[in-house]
Amino acid sequence: MDDARGRLAAAAVEAFADNGFHATTTRDIASRAGMSPAALYVHHRSKEGLLFALSRDGHLAALDVVTEAAARHDDPTARLQAMIHDFTQWHAEHSKTARIVQYELAALTPDHLAEVARHRRAIERTVREVLEEGVARGEFEVADVPGTALAMLSLAVDLVRWYEPGGSRSPQQLADLYAGLALRMARPL
Q: Is the confidence at residue 1, as pLDDT, over 80?
């Protein structure tokens, strides 16, 4: 990412996180980036195009986190724990970006939303596959695999609504907690 594009992205994250997509103007973004109001249009067709780039990149980063965590382990229990741990930690460490990525989807055009939705489904599918494997091996007892996968991911997704860096729990502590909760959701009683 070139410097100007990176500055615009960082400024957009701050502006969207502070004011929401609709209340943020291109002038707000450019001003935060220390650039002229026209600078955004050199790199993106529109403010929505910039939001799409942030959302796509954020979802791809989250997908990488989940797939890399899964690849580190052979057994479903360790894979699930690592996936939810790392997905949660990523959301806490990148809470402003994650808030935008997760909660500004309605501002995307239908085509852009469709692309982001494919990445979201890939993340969910990765968790579902681990749950299904764990059920098949007798490690997990999950009656509703799709619903359970969604609930597990929602733990991390929802934390960006309230999480503030420097609060009472660190990203590591939240990741440990949520990974433990995910295992309790999946293991037989």
A: no
Decide: 41 and 29 in contact? Cβ < 8 Å: no
Any idea how long the chain is? 189
Domain range enclosing 7: 1-44
Is there a single domain that holds both residue 57 and residue 112? yes
Indicate whether 125 and 38 sit together in one domain. no
How many independent structural domains does the chain possess?
Answer: 2
pLDDT at 133 over 80: yes
> Are 31 and 78 members of one domain?
no
What is the pTM assigned to this prediction? Answer: 0.91
Q: Are residues 54 and 35 in the same domain?
A: no
pLDDT at 48 over 60: yes
Phi and psi torsions of 35, nearest 5°: -130, 170
Neighbour count for residue 36 (Cβ, 10 Å)? 12
How far apart (Å, rounded) are the C-alpha atoms in residues 80 and 73? 9
Rg (CA), the chain: 18
What number of helices (H) and strands (E) belong to the chain? 9, 0
